[in-house]
Amino acid sequence: MVASDAQKTQYATEHWFREQGLPYFVQPRNRGRRLLARCAPMLLFLAMSSFAWSLYAHSSAIQLISDEADSEFDLGPGQAVLLLSMPIAVVLLPVLLAIVGRRFLARHRGWARLVSAGAIVTLLLINPLVAIGSRESSWGIEFSSNLITVLLVLGLAWLGIGSFLGWSVRAAVRQLSAIWLLAAIALPLLMLVVIFAFYSQETWQMTAGLQRGQIFWLLVFLLATGLLFVVYSARKELRDLPASLTEESRAELRGGTPLALVDELPGGAGEGWQGLNRAERANVVWVLVLAQCFQVLIFGLLVFSFLMVLAMLSVPEPLAVQWSGQAAVPLQMFGLNLPIGQAPVRVCAFLAAIAALNFVVSVNSSKAYRDAFFDPLIEQTSRALAVHAAYQSRFCRPEPGPDAPQDPVRKPGLSAPDDIVDA
């Protein structure tokens, strides 16, 4: 019974690591554990999406999309409804079902394995049969592409990439809830400088004089500079972190995790940052870096939206032409002319990138910014290191002899509320 509880605790801890975007904290021999059940949401999405696409491959909607040379093709009401329903059936509904089913499948591993098996059967047997006779696909193409897709999903999940990508999506959604914090703390401190540059004629002239490729690489250069600073500051913070992670603080940080009531055993595999191998260190660094990148991206989009509204309200087209020194040219996207001028978009994008770079520097230097945006990330990283120390000492030690006493381990639930980017 004790051994069974210990195994459940170990699995719950490994599940917690994957939820935090730290798949390389799991022992290598356990990375393939319950692989099929863990891939159930993604396989369910792929099976439903592929099945819907196979059905649409027989319809006139696919003919309308693929037959670009036939300009006389008339679109009837039924075909219009069919065409509009395609993105819903192929993308939206499978995504919603996978998201809703994720929590249920995480708690019911038997159902998760059953769903994964059914999804694989659908991808490898049913969908190729449905594709027979369609003009867009064939049995061989459908089977080979679906087989490669299934193997790719299982391989990425085993490597931990699937866990990291899933965490990235959840982290991005969680960061959206912090927009009010960005607007209340970060945005007012930068608006005076940004607005002053926005109403400067030299800024409009400089951005208008650049070619489209030049403005793109300028934005890439500014964002890459910010990324290098984020990586450097993250590594520096993590190197200094072990000094504050005493045994008592690690026990307190494990509260609310699967190892909340579990103490570290003496002689563990290592504590804190110094106890991590190269892959584990890289995993921690890039989780922290990516969490900051989401903050910077959302802040940049917030500044860009604010400046675009400001441009529409206060910079009429004749004034924009005068400042930029060029005739008004509409913004083109996907071959369509949008009712927005290129000059305001270029100015707003350039100033948003400058503001985002300033935000990166301020987050790592200003105390007000650190308290609001950076310290919560460091606290969650400390919690992950504290859990990892107990996990290493409990489950990565040599197997005890038959006469060695067993340590009772608490039987936890699978839910782990905290995320490394919970803002």
From TrEMBL:
<feature type="transmembrane region" description="Helical">
    <location>
        <begin position="284"/>
        <end position="313"/>
    </location>
</feature>
<keyword id="KW-0472">Membrane</keyword>
<keyword id="KW-1133">Transmembrane helix</keyword>
<feature type="transmembrane region" description="Helical">
    <location>
        <begin position="343"/>
        <end position="361"/>
    </location>
</feature>
<protein>
    <submittedName>
        <fullName>Uncharacterized protein</fullName>
    </submittedName>
</protein>
<feature type="transmembrane region" description="Helical">
    <location>
        <begin position="215"/>
        <end position="234"/>
    </location>
</feature>
<keyword id="KW-0812">Transmembrane</keyword>
<feature type="transmembrane region" description="Helical">
    <location>
        <begin position="35"/>
        <end position="56"/>
    </location>
</feature>
<feature type="transmembrane region" description="Helical">
    <location>
        <begin position="179"/>
        <end position="199"/>
    </location>
</feature>
<feature type="transmembrane region" description="Helical">
    <location>
        <begin position="111"/>
        <end position="131"/>
    </location>
</feature>
<feature type="region of interest" description="Disordered">
    <location>
        <begin position="398"/>
        <end position="423"/>
    </location>
</feature>
<feature type="transmembrane region" description="Helical">
    <location>
        <begin position="143"/>
        <end position="167"/>
    </location>
</feature>
<feature type="transmembrane region" description="Helical">
    <location>
        <begin position="76"/>
        <end position="99"/>
    </location>
</feature>
